[in-house]
Design goal:
Number of helices: 21
Strand order of the largest sheet: 7-6-5-8-11-12
Distance between the termini: 25 Å
Largest sheet: 6 strands, parallel
Amino acid sequence: MSLLVVGLSHRSAPVSVLERAALSADAQVKLAQDTVAAEPATEAAVLATCNRIELYADVDKFHAGVAELSTLLAQHSGVGLDELTPYLYVHYEDRAVHHLFSVACGLDSMVVGEGQILAQLKDSLARAQELHSAGRLMNDLFQQGLRVGKRAHSETGIDRAGQSLVTFGLEQLAAGGDVQEWARGRKALVIGAGSMSSLAAATLARAGVAEIVVANRTFDRAERLAQILIDNDETDVAARAVPMDAVPGELTRADVVVSCTGATGLVLSADAVAAAVEGRIGEPVAEIEDDRPAQLVPRSAVGLGTDENCPLDLTAAQSGFSVMGEAAVAGMAAAELEQHAAWVDNGTVDIREAGRRNPEAEAEAEAELIGALAAAAARVGRIPERRRPEPVAGFVRPAPALFLLDLAMPRDIDAAVHRLVGVRLVDIESLAEASADAPMAADVDEVRRIVSDEVAAFGAAQRAAHITPTVVALRTMAADVVAGEIARLDGRLPDLDDRQRGEIRQAVHRVVDKLLHAPTVRVKQLAAEPGGAGYADALRTLFDLDPETVAAVSRAVDSTDKKDRPA
């Protein structure tokens, strides 16, 4: 059997694809169960975070394993296999081990060096153990990954290179300023009460916010988190819990909002955010509109057409782009794009193109563009989403009245909030863009060395463990031969006393042990080296060992390992 990982992350896929492929807790359970039920796999574990979805499995065939795991990921994520495949990566054997260890150390995180991934790895292993989808390989791999991650954080300064996603997000909200100075005295609303939301609440409390309101669908969990914040002697923050239906009112009072729930739909719409800001500043919220440079256009004044044959929801279309351009059709399926192209070609759109010298030529050109997009969508399934408007020349946003941090995948906060004046939204896509420019610490090289050393050690241990059942079976066979010969000797020499029989028995055992010692020690050493897996087969062939005996020993070793593993 061999280790295989198939997955996608912020490094391989755009955020819009990650968002659509995000797995709920129930979907993760079903994916692991279906994987071990599939023919090529005997063990499986799912690692799903806000910026990665990975399926680990112990498979007996590489190509069949890749095909099966890819298909299962597509089925459970709801993204078509043809669309998902270009964004998938595959790692096998030592490369798969190297990948997991790198993930555990934070080298593959959006924010290099962040430690939150260790808790997520631990949760992933615990889930696989509960489902009995984790056998010897998955347990060894993830437990060693946790140890490697802890070693990297304790022996190097990788923490200086990165931080938690929460801290990085707050730094982006503060626009490069001091987070504590920015947060001091503000009122915060935290939506969700899971691990990421709890981390956000604790971070905000340490940063010096005056009040934290926790909203959650399960009110008891919100109360529990609020009480933890109150009981923390290291901070002095007022905290209280509210039900989810109180969020609109709390949104008007809050200065900072952090949202990270498991909801499959939006938690905060653009209209809800606009209404909250309007309640704070006492006037309608404007949007950036690139058809009118350096001007602000009230939401109610953005007229985008009302033709009933248009498949696009024009009232929700992103301003800052022409509704006939790329952003208007972002995320549309191929059939919808074809319908939209025909609608544009018929010239029924009213987008108030004041100031354009040749609107007819513009419309014709954009109709051709959308036709090309439709053709592309026919091949790949959907047009990647483009969420934020390009900066308008000469326009400077006023200071935000409301700061929002969306750490959920799929998103909790409508991406259209990006274009609201008086609001700063930082989400996973924003963080991915910002982290691409983040400086790497010198300690990263040291962590990479640790990972390489640990991968080599893990591979050697696994290869040595692979031959152990064969060595045990060989020694068992030798012990049986010795016992048989001693019994035959007892029958042929019945006059021997107990002392003589004991001396003969010990002498025979010493001879057998000495004959087997060097070969078994050497074969373990050879098996631990790269390419040493064949030595177990050679040993079984040379000594004509019964395959079922070897398998029985292997099952017994696995059973003992499970008893010794911590719950």
